[in-house]
Amino acid sequence: MLYIWLDESDKEGTYYSNFYGGILIKSVNVDRVLRMSQTKISEVGLDNEEIKWQKVNKFTFEKYKILIDFIFDLLENDLAKIRIFFRNNQFVPQGLTKEQKRKEYPLLYNQFIKHGFGLQYSNPNAEETNIKLLLDDMPLKGDDAKEFKRYLYGLNLDDSFKKAHLHIKMEDICEVDSKKHLPLQFMDLILGAMCFRLNDKHKIKDAITGKRGTRTKLKEDLYKYINNRIRKLHPGFNIGVNTRTKELSDRWELPYSHWSFKPSNYKRDISKAKK
To answer: Taking a C-beta distance cutoff of 8 angstroms, is the pair 237, 227 a contact?
Structure first.
């Protein structure tokens, strides 16, 4: 089985929107990774605290750096994979129906899971493989949430999933509490950092002092620390574009990658681009 913990951030950002992130762990590694994660959390003294990007401050900064190293060590040792998806606002979709606009969330999320992890290339031996999706606190409720889960369940009908012998059971599409799932907390930290930098939140100044706040500066420093670890995996990495691949199978093989989504039919609006 493949376990994927899924988180989200800014739905509408200044330059980039619809941030989704996922951390994937194979079943053969999941117990080990979860034990290691809990041990590391105890070592840094954060047993009773939820790890979140919004909690970056002078008390958590050094501890979060240790956790960043732990997360990227997992990636380097092929014990986990991270994928991040976002939409560049300057590429404005054209010709969308009212229904497509209303269903933006499930449609984009579906694309992220379908293509972002390269799952079609994860199973070269064609063994029957189940996928478990663990989603953090979906914004959809009631019938909308049920419809969203049906969208994800519908991936079973995709030809590439069938060919790769991949299956998603309805009961394996789960909404979970991030407080009880360390992979989700780790994902929040990485995804929050990317959203922070891509939407220029590091430039925000206090309305009264006209200066950047201490927490903003610490967040920028932590983002830079994360970016340095990414660049160990991908020298010259550009966080705002698609991660380069040489082969289609790299969509699965890469330990860390970004997908800057561009609709198939779009009009470019330069006013929405970063200066």
So the answer is: yes
Q: Phi/psi zone of residue 225: left (φ > 0), alpha (ψ -120 to 50 degrees), beta?
A: alpha
260: its two tokens = 């800057």
pLDDT tens string 83-142: 999 999 999 999 888 888 888 888 899 999 999 999 999 998 889 999 999 999 888 888
Neighbours of 62 (CB within 10 A): 10
Give which of 192, 194, 190 is closest to 88, Cα–Cα.
194
Identify the CA nearest to 156 among candidates 129, 189, 195, 137.
Answer: 129
Report phi then psi at 195, rounded to 5.
-65, -40
Residues 6+ apart with CB under 8 A from 136: 5, 6, 7, 8, 175, 176, 177, 178, 181, 184, 187, 188
**Residue 133: partners with Cβ closer than 8 Å, 6 or more residues away:** 4, 6, 113, 152, 168, 172, 173, 174
First to last CA, the chain: 44
* Of 230, 248, 247, residue with least CA distance to 239: 230
Residue numbers in the chain where pLDDT is lower than 70: none
Phi and psi torsions of 53, nearest 5°: -55, -40
The CATH T-level fold of domain 2-272 is Nucleotidyltransferase; domain 5 (3.30.420)
Element (H, E) at 240: none
